[in-house]
Amino acid sequence: MPTIEIERAGCRSCSLCFDVCPTDVFEMDAGEGVAVVARPDDCVGCASCEYVCPSRCVSLSEVERQRPFHRLEEHATLVSRLLQQSPVAASLSAAEVASALRDVSVRLVALGESITDTIGRGQKVVGRKAGQQAAAHLPEVYEGGSLTDVLGRVRQRLGPSFEFQADVAEDEGRVDLRFRSCALARVVRNAGQSEGQAVLCALFHEYWAGLLGEATQRVFRVMPVDSGGPCGFRLAVNN
Predict the structure, then answer these.
(1) Which domains does the chain have, with CATH numbers?
(2) C-alpha to C-alpha distance for 132 and 124, rounded to whole angstroms
(3) Residue 64: CB partners within 8 Å, gap ≥ 6?
(4) Which of 5, 65, 75, 113 has the fewest CB neighbours in a 10 Å radius?
């Protein structure tokens, strides 16, 4: 049977878990203004509460996670064959790609600045949450049992945009990532910011902590490392 736990100290009293639950598992404590698990036996394990919680203080266990197999690359290729249509990206010209890159660059820099202005140091949580959600759309990375296997599958998917080397120490629970090419580096340079030091870089590092953490069921913390260049960082298991 699914088990729900709420870290009360992290609850913001937003009531989103209460609002989204399809079986009315939650109640709001009027005195403390926090959510409580009032009817745990009614939980169906949909994980809507865990997904929607902005503080990540709702956790669900004893439930089988369903992976979105429709996002597998092989399945996407099969669908395109059945529809007899090529992906839109295949028909874009070089000028259209360049224009799209400029547009995305401006939006990403503005987004990073907005997050910092609004949240401050809490921006790290945003990056980590993005990585955790991205993992759900990369179901093939879960096929690897070890951290090395997971990184290999991530490289297959993200390699064209993020070419990296990984020094993995499974016994120590850490991995050093060094990026030889990074799609965000061009955005950061165009904005006159320093690679590895910009807000977008900090968000991206936390993104990797969330992505690999979700795929391996570990909690990583981001640490600096001497990478011999601006684009490198360490992910270490948070014991």
Answers:
(1) 3-61 (3.30.70.20), 88-237 (3.30.1380.20)
(2) 12
(3) 45
(4) 65
Rounded (10°) angle between helices 199-216 and 94-119: 90
The rounded distance, in Å, linking the Cα atoms of 142 and 153 is 9
41-88 pLDDT, tens per residue? 999 888 888 888 888 889 888 887 665 554 555 656 666 676 666 666
**12-16, 91-95, 128-132: the lowest-pLDDT one:** 91-95
Exposure b/e, 205-231, CB count within 10 A at least 16 = b? bbbbbbbbbbbbeeebbbeebebeeeb
pTM over 0.90: no
Q: Which two tokens stand for residue 93?
A: 């010209």
